[in-house]
Design brief:
Blueprint: H1 3-7, E1 20-23, H2 31-38, E2 42-47, H3 55-65, E3 69-73, H4 82-94, E4 99-104, H5 106-120, E5 131-132, E6 143-147, E7 159-164, E8 173-178, E9 186-189, H6 199-218, H7 224-246, H8 251-271, H9 275-287, H10 291-306, H11 311-320, H12 330-347, H13 373-377, H14 385-396, H15 410-422, H16 426-429
Parallel strand pairs: 1-9, 2-3, 2-4, 4-6, 5-8, 6-9
Antiparallel strand pairs: 7-8
Helix pairs in contact: 2-3, 4-5, 6-7, 6-8, 6-10, 7-8, 7-11, 9-10, 9-14, 10-12, 10-15, 11-12, 14-15
């Protein structure tokens, strides 16, 4: 069955499970006892290393203090690559591990989920599992996911995102694998661990949350159990993102974003996503740019694109963002929501179009970095016709696109992509 057939309106809609979770200040300190309770003995920790912090070392030492053996793979990259996953699988097998812990943001969690699926299938390449429930063995090694950012919600969802660099090295492909078998065993969200998250990274992750919340709220799936969480996550993001960005040790702001990202992931887990994410996946496939940054640039353009199909839902979003919509028509309220999203983007200091992204734009930028020749050569986002065309084609093949509120074709989506590359946000609200 094709992806579009799965997502088009259908009388039976599927609710996907969430893992057990510990949320709140100090929750990460319980990882040792929790791992023992689940049955961990020898664990592979997957992380980017979180260089500049002592988070990984503290958690690993805490696990060892409780008698667990720990092996560390700390080379997970932003937009995790297939080779990250397979290198971790080899380390897991070589060390006869029996469990996983991921520490970090969505990249660490996604790579770990992919590695678990591969391990459960005797080390088959992770790229074989692109799509919907492609794994055949439902029993994966247990997995505790410890989040250090308020962004993807990967510790909560049935999705993981991997960049395939090997099938066609000249055309990397970033895909979403949706698999109920990949859901973590335990999620740990501790806002204290977010304190070390850089300002720009915090802002970008926050727009990942806003995309996760808004897309299921307007999705053509129209999944009622997701709508309340989606709307509340929009409200929490509007209330707390600025404080989390500009005062990183503000516990209220950090905790507000912790809950926002957690319940936004619960919303899209069954409620679907749209072309904010499809555009983001395409741009990071070709340029290795940060997923949250990509979502931030795409979000206002995609909201403007989708609003004519579902004004009343965007009017609800306006109210959730704190706008007094009394006396406004639904289109007027929707326009106010769009303006509020642009104001938020500017307030937290995110770049406004992709061609403005350079190697110095943000602290974790990988533009023009290796390790493959493709990424070494991708030093500048050109935004020219060829660039817009290849990104548009990637969008149309993305698993998130069929859930978009408005029908997507090459002719309708290409102008949106072009505006993301080259357009002025003021054009959307003038």
């Amino acid at each position: 069955m094709q992806v579009d057939e799965l997502l088009k309106p259908f009388p039976i809609k599927e609710f996907h499970p969430f893992p057990r979770a510990l949320l709140g200040p100090g929750s990460h300190e319980l990882i040792g006892p929790e791992a023992l309770k689940i049955g961990f003995k020898k664990t592979l920790v997957m992380t980017s290393g979180l260089r500049g912090t002592d988070i990984v070392n503290k958690i690993v030492e805490s696990m060892r203090y409780h008698g667990l053996e720990v092996v560390v793979y700390d080379k997970v990259e932003s937009n995790p690559k297939d080779y990250n996953v397979m290198d971790a699988v080899s380390m897991y097998q070589d060390n006869s591990c029996d469990s996983f812990v991921s520490i970090g943001g969505g990249s660490s969690h996604d790579a770990c989920k992919g590695a678990r699926v591969s391990v459960a299938h005797d080390g088959r390449n992770v790229n074989e599992f692109e799509g919907f429930n492609m794994s055949e063995n439902p029993k994966n090694p247990p997995h505790i996911a410890v989040s250090t950012t308020a962004g993807t919600g990967s510790e909560t969802s049935w999705a993981y995102v991997i960049t395939d660099t090997t099938t066609d090295p000249d055309n990397p492909h970033k895909y979403v694998a949706f698999d109920d078998a990949s859901v973590t065993t335990l999620a740990i969200d501790d806002p204290v661990l977010y304190y070390d998250c850089p300002i720009d990274y915090t802002a970008q992750c926050g727009f990942d949350v806003l995309a996760h919340a808004s897309e299921p709220y307007v999705s053509r799936l129209n999944f009622d159990p997701s709508l309340g969480n989606a709307l509340h996550a929009i409200k929490l993001t509007s209330q707390h993102l600025r404080a989390a960005v500009w005062n990183g040790q503000d516990l209220e702001g950090r905790q507000g974003m912790m809950y926002a990202q957690y319940i936004a992931a619960q919303a899209f887990n069954s409620g679907g996503l749209g072309i904010i994410h499809s555009i983001s996946h395409a741009v990071s496939a070709f340029y290795d740019t940060h997923h949250g940054l990509n979502n931030a640039v795409a979000l206002p353009r995609v909201w403007a694109f989708n609003m004519p199909a579902i004004y009343h839902r965007f009017a609800d979003i306006a109210e959730a963002m704190g706008i007094d919509t009394h006396g406004m028509t639904k289109p007027q309220a929707a326009d106010a929501a769009l303006a509020a999203s642009i104001r938020l983007l500017r307030d937290v200091g995110i770049v406004e179009k992709f061609t403005d992204v350079t190697q110095d734009t943000y602290s974790k930028n990988r533009l023009g970095e290796g390790p493959t020749k493709f990424y070494e050569n991708a030093k500048v986002i050109t935004g020219d016709k060829e660039d817009v065309d290849r990104i548009t084609n990637h969008v149309l093949g993305d698993a998130c696109t069929p859930g978009n509120a408005k029908e997507c074709t090459f002719e309708t989506v290409r102008p949106v992509v072009d505006h993301c590359m080259n357009g002025d946000l003021d054009d959307l609200i003038s």
